[in-house]
Amino acid sequence: MNSKVALVTGGSRGVGAATALRLARDGFDVAVTYVQGKEAAEEVVRRVEALGRRGLAVRADSADAGEAADAVSLTTERLGRHGRLDVLVNNAGIGVLGPLESLTLADVDRVLAVNVRGVFLVSQAAAPVMDAGSRIVTIGTCMTKYVPGPGGTLYAMSKSALIGLTKALARELGARGITANIVHPGPIDTDMNPADGPYASGQAEMTALGRFGTADEVARTVAYLAGPAAAYVTGAELAVDGGHAA
Ligand code: NDP
Fold it and tell me: Which terminal Cβ of the chain has fewer Cβ within 10 Å, N or C?
């Protein structure tokens, strides 16, 4: 019952699922949120439990203000030591790409609700139940550093807001010993961006290493930021992008 507790939003698949498992290997009890993938989220919980930790799957749409904040209280109620949270990973995100003129008002509202407002609200709910040593890690994108072509206006805009949020969180929560950092993945082989998809080769060529990354390669950096080695790292942007921005 003395394990540290982490909440990973969007942890049923991809980078979030890999992060949940990496944190479980590092000794955390882990809650994951999902919207569609109940079975997948429950499978992540089973794998967390197989690593000897406690797991929890919470259906919580980051676009829903109430659900986003409730995910924190459910996590601390079910897994938390004295209602505390040690690590928040703001991973849930959606990509809506397309020419500027094709993006609808509904697209804009949905992307900002999930990628920006949801991250703000979960962070706002988490901060009061965090203590010195707690960590907030947010997932951005390499497209905040270098946009390789057209179609990324809405997505890049939404993710760029998270840089400002992260730096401001670092300043605001630093006095309490809480760190906030952002990780910028390059092209990562997940359902969102499969390495065998129609645009895959172009993306791989944009990196210095000439390949997609894996979800676990991102998860390892998140786990570093969540762990003791990163105690003095805050307000930082870490690229895990195979040299996409090089
Ligand atoms: P996936 O689409 O593979 O997985 C997304 C995860 O987020 C799923 O667990 C999904 O749950 C969950 N999710 C989606 N919408 C919501 C929502 N509204 N509320 C809560 N959870 C939600 O994405 P990736 O793993 O590829 O991406 C993870 C993060 O990394 C995202 O923020 C993405 O923008 C970012 N990123 C990804 C890159 C890539 O190349 N893959 C590159 C750069 C950044 P459900 O099972 O319910 O669908």
Answer: N
At 228, the amino acid letter reads: P
CA 175 / ligand 1 centre spacing (Å): 31
Amino acid letter for position 119: V
Query: How far apart are the C-alpha atoms of 30 and 33, rounded to whole Å?
Result: 10
Does the annotation count 199 as an active-site position? no
Determine which residue's CA is closest to atom 16 belonging to ligand 1: 92
Using the structure block, give the residue that is written with the tokens 């969102």: 192
So where are the chain's domains? 4-240
Say if ligand 1 is within 6 A of residue 136 CB.
no
| Ligand 1 atom nearest residue 36's Cα | 47
Q: Give the pLDDT confidence of 132-162 residue by residue, as tens digits.
A: 999 999 999 999 999 999 999 999 999 999 9
